[in-house]
Amino acid sequence: MSAYTLSEFRLPIQFELAMVRSVKNPFPSQLFEKFSKRECQHALEVFHYAAQAETSEEVRDALLRFQRLFPFDRLLGGLARLGPGGTFEGFTNIVNVSYPDEWLYLYWKNGYADVDPVFRAAARSPSTQTWRKTYQQATTKEELDFIETARGFGLTDGITTSSVDPTCGLATFYSFAGGKDIDAERYAQLVEYLGRHLHLALMRTARKNAPATEKCVKELSPREVTVLNWIKNGKTNWEVGQILGVTERTVRFHLASIFSKLDVTSRSQAVAAAMEHGLPILHGLPSAI
């Protein structure tokens, strides 16, 4: 071996071609040509942590790293359950990094998944899309109203990448959003490549037979959703009060309302009923809504 230089030692061309054909997803070296060395290092860091993620919190950590290193100030990932024929049945796991809490609640409460042009396109044909291009195809009043409302929350342009596992009946999605000055097109391929790792990571967190959101859970108020998620995370009434900046008595008041709406009599029953009927698991909970 030492008698040859690296340039002189080559595999037979037939073997090299066979190796290339055997690779399902060749490394997309051209993807990184538009980025600086520093940006490439940032991307590799995010890929590293995304590939290792096993829990929702680790997925969120990978997304946080992306947010710190690239110009997107609104990041979100999630799992959605699909019914027969790939119809959307509801969200089962939401990993929120920096989407406005009020917007998430409105999206869930108002059923915006039915009119959101980006989400509907992702459900029809899983891929990577820039919002600006998808929004240009919106024509109905409901779609245009939705787009205008989203802009009011700083969600002007962005990238959404999605994937579907028909065997499990689950779809994963990630959205990277920002203001009107963001160059989403420049990062679309990078997000798509990252998305492959993130999709697998989020699938690893999926609960078997995860339920979709049903109407009884949608009757909960934003504060009740927050309280119930903290209760699910093992917090006492006093701890929830400290987190939200309210009295323990106020927390008990919210719990009484939750019990009434879910027709239960205890904290454990409330959590079980909410999970059964599709309370989205919120990771990265806010201190208040």
What's this, in brief?
With 289 residues, the chain is of the alpha+beta class. 49% of the residues lie in helices and 15% in strands.
Per-chain topology:
Blueprint: H1 13-22, H2 37-52, H3 56-69, E1 74-82, E2 88-96, H4 101-109, H5 117-124, E3 128-130, H6 131-135, H7 141-151, E4 157-165, E5 170-178, H8 184-204, H9 215-218, H10 222-232, H11 237-244, H12 248-262, H13 267-276, E6 281-283
Parallel strand pairs: 2-6
Antiparallel strand pairs: 1-2, 1-5, 3-4, 4-5
Helix pairs in contact: 2-3, 2-8, 10-12, 10-13, 11-12, 12-13
Written description of the protein model:
With 289 residues, this protein is of the alpha+beta class. It has 2 domains: 174 residues, Beta-Lactamase (2-Layer Sandwich), CATH 3.30.450.80; 69 residues, Arc Repressor Mutant, subunit A (Orthogonal Bundle), CATH 1.10.10. Helix content is 49%, strand content 15%. A 6-stranded mixed sheet has the order 3-4-5-1-2-6, with helices on both faces. The chain starts with 12 loop residues before the first helix and ends in a 6-residue tail after the last strand. The N terminus and C terminus are likely disordered.
Low-pLDDT regions: 1-11, 13-23, 208-213, 285-289
Helix content: 40-55%
- The helix-strand sequence is HHHEEHHEHHEEHHHHHHE
Give the count of structural domains: 2
The percentage of residues in β strands lies in 5-15%
Query: Count of DSSP E strands?
Result: 6
Kindly name the structural category.
alpha+beta
What is the overall silhouette?
A: globular
Average pLDDT: 80
> What is the CATH homologous superfamily assignment of the largest domain?
Transcription factor LuxR-like, autoinducer-binding domain
